[in-house]
Amino acid sequence: MMQAKDIMTTPVVSVTPETGVSEVARLLLHRHISAVPVIDADGRLVGVVSEGDFLRRAEGDSHRHGSWWLRLFSEPTDNAAEYVKTHGRSAADVMTRDVVTVTEDISAGDVAHLLETKRIKRVPVLRDGKVVGIVSRADLLRGLAAQRDTPTATASVEDATIRKQILEEISAGDWAPTYGVSVVVVGGVVQIWGIVDSQEQSEALRVAAANVPGVKSVELNVSIIPAYAWSM
Predict the structure, then answer these.
(1) Less CB within 10 Å around the terminal CB: N or C of the chain?
(2) 152: helix, strand or coil
(3) Distances from the Cα of 164 to the Cα of 54, 183, 190, 202, angstroms
(4) What 8-state DSSP symbol labels residue 90?
(5) What is the mean pLDDT of residues 69-77?
(6) For 7-39, what is each residue's pLDDT tens digit?
């Protein structure tokens, strides 16, 4: 049975509580992600900034002068908190603090149930209180697709070892993407998703995976976005 650690995207792109709102927005756009964890100086998760938080910010001024009778039932503390969300200038101001998290050993099925019942799009994965990955709806679909592509195989201890070695090789390389990649291994078949800066970086991912003992084949599902595009 696949677990969160088998499908999570890693390493995790994160920001600090002091990171400016505009910088967070650029990060989401440039990395093509919908949310980013906020990590404090001790490496602990303190919140998440998502597209939803920015949507609320964008709607702030238009709703501030909305229905007067709804405002009659609003608590002053609620209004003050909303003002901080819509006018704050740092990640700490706009982030969602009540974050749903999971551990590495939770099953993919339980993660899917959690996303559905909580109506969220992704969940941070914690190890000893620190974020080691993110499981999104897309990661769940990738894991499901990998299993369906190899119907006689299931994720095994050997697959977990292969995945671990691939991720270690990627993280140790000075050629690797600086943003997360998603690696799923089922029956020795490796599937890699993510964003790379060049075709050469894509090929390096393929070679890194193919060189790990036990790998039968490597399927790349990456998008190439040149580094210069980040500054546009």
Answers:
(1) C
(2) coil
(3) 35, 9, 12, 19
(4) B
(5) 55
(6) 998 888 899 999 999 999 999 888 888 899 999
Write out the two tokens for 223: 């998008």
Distance CA 5, CA 162 (A): 13
54 pLDDT band, cuts 50/70/90, is confident
CA distance 104 to 144: 17
Residue 155: both structure tokens together: 């994720």
Angle, CA of 32, 218 and 211, to the nearest 5°: 110
- Asked if residues 14 and 2 have their Cβ atoms less than 8 Å apart, the reply is no
Q: Rounded to the nearest 10 degrees, how much is the dihedral formed by the CA atoms of 18, 24, 111, 137? A: 180
Q: Identify the band that residue 173 occupies on the pLDDT scale cut at 50, 70 and 90.
A: confident
Length in residues, the chain: 232
Cα distance between residue 47 and residue 51, in whole Å: 14
Helix (H, G, I), strand (E, B) or coil at 24: helix
Q: What pairs with residue 102 in β-bridges?
A: 125
Task: Reply yes or no on whether the pLDDT at 61 is more than 60.
Answer: no
β-strand pairing of 102-103 with 217-224: unpaired
**Pick from 152, 204, 159, 211: nearest CA to 184:** 159
- Rg (C-alpha) for the chain, rounded Å, is 20
Give the pairing type, strands 102-103 and 122-127.
parallel
User: Are the CB atoms for 69 and 118 separated by under 8 Å?
Assistant: no
